[in-house]
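Look at a sample.

——
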Amino acid sequence: MSGNKAMEAEKAYQLEGPAKECELYAIPRSREVGQSYFTSVFTSLNSCLYAASLVWQTSPDIVIVNGPGTCIPLCGAAFLFSKLFVKACDIVYVESIARTRTLSLSGKILYHSRMARVFLVQWEQLAKQYRRAEFAGRLY
């Protein structure tokens, strides 16, 4: 979920059990719709610095993401810290159910860079097309 929807969901769903321990963070977008490529360099840098700070402060064991562009700086920071032996963190990527024939840009970046330890797709044909992807069925 993005932005305010994530914060509203936390209140709307009366989380119970281990889920009650979760924390939601808003990460600045790397690029707004229609934003120029030149200025997106600066907003992307801001997003990367914020994500690195967040990963450093929270020290997650696992990051589960589902595709929006904001996941790339977060995954990059978690991956970098893992490779530098600062903090081991697994990345699980779940491709959108809307992606039936090709991966999203975020999916392509995480798949080809091998940042995601687990790469899940929701369509069998994608799992056949991308060998390291695992078919997970429909995840709701």
Observations:
- The chain has a mean pLDDT of 85.
